[in-house]
Amino acid sequence: MKSGAHRAAWASICAPDFSLALTLACGQVFHWQPCPAHGAGFAGAIGDVPVYVEQRGGELWTNGPRDLVAHYFALDHPLAEIYRSFPTDPAMSGALEFCRGLRIIRQPAWECLATFITSSMKQVAHIAQISHTIRRRFGQRLDFEGAELFAYPPAARLAELDEQTLRECALGYRAKNLLGSARMIATGEVDLEGIRALDDDAARAELCRLPGVGEKVANCVLLFAFERVRAFPIDVWIARVLREAYFKQKRNVSAGRLREFSRAYFGDYGGYAQQYLFHQARTAQKSRRRGKKTCRSPRGNP
DNA sequence: CTCCAGGTTCCGG
DNA sequence: CCGGAACATGGA
């Protein structure tokens, strides 16, 4: 990082078995941005605390509060033990090789829930765009040199908007769901923090009471915010991976079948396995598209 | 222009 | 329990 940055004491945190870049790029969180003004790292908000982070070998440098940063990036998760729990089939081994150091972070619950409510039938890039728009328009501006940072607006803030206003953030039909969920949480009809105390099944059921929250989004919140590392969100990508890798010959593998298989096969750190498979598959797809020659359609001959 | 994207909800076999 | 269809918007 450059020497001009100050304001808080810089701290270096011991962070072995950690890849900051993979952790931020794998699709579990959407608002961190490169920050050239400070260096090769990233700027983002942890809740309403603006933070710069940069990895240097086995250390994580930051101008933010040490404990907050270490907790957010889950530097205490036992990666070696987690890897030992992974099955050793080709698909999983390939994903592990590709994603080594990726950690499932501890996100604030509401912003995690809200961003995944807006995620349905949207590309990852667009989820990030919606998240940024909502932060910029309704979130608290955070004091930070080198980047424009905004906190995610609290549920109570979104709850006071009307659907039309929210739709201007390009949410489409998801605006109604986000608004409805924000209101249920703002009124206390659903106690989001209280869900922490519940077991996985009860927590998932409670989350599913919110509009726009089904099993997949609930599992994302359990995994990315409530540290339920068994939770195994199944989206189109993971469904494809599972069918290709584990049900190659089978026809018509139902969603229920996939859910049951993932629970039994990946075990207590299934959420980690899921995210590694997800990121590996998506990255492989991207590089395949990039490598392909840009071929225009031969259709329009004048 | 067509297709599809980290789904959810509702509806009929 | 299972498969289909509607639902908005933008990028490839």
Structural overview:
The protein is α+β, with helices and mostly antiparallel strands and 302 residues long. It is 46% helix and 9% strand. It is built from 14 helices and seven strands. A five-stranded antiparallel β-sheet has the order 1-5-4-3-2. Strands 6-7 form a two-stranded antiparallel sheet. α10 packs across α11 and α13 packs across α14. The chain is globular. The N and C termini lie far apart (55 Å). The C terminus is likely disordered. It binds a DNA duplex (13 and 12 nucleotides) through α6, α9, α11, α12 and α14.
Task: Give the helices and strands as they follow along the chain.
Answer: EHEEEEHHHHHEEHHHHHHHH
What structural category characterises the helix and strand content? alpha+beta
Largest sheet: spatial strand order: 1-5-4-3-2
Counting DSSP E segments of at least 2 residues, the number of strands comes to 7
| Spatial extent as radius of gyration | 20 Å
Instruction: Tell me the overall shape.
Output: globular
List keywords for this structure.
disordered C terminus; two-stranded antiparallel ribbon; single chain; globular; 5-stranded antiparallel sheet; 14 helices; DNA-binding; 7 strands
What's the arrangement of secondary structure elements?
Layout: E1 11-14, H1 20-25, E2 33-34, E3 42-46, E4 49-56, E5 59-62, H2 66-72, H3 79-85, H4 90-99, H5 109-117, H6 124-138, E6 141-142, E7 149-150, H7 155-159, H8 163-167, H9 174-186, H10 200-207, H11 215-224, H12 236-246, H13 255-266, H14 270-291
Antiparallel strand pairs: 1-5, 2-3, 3-4, 4-5, 6-7
The structure holds a DNA duplex (13 and 12 nucleotides).
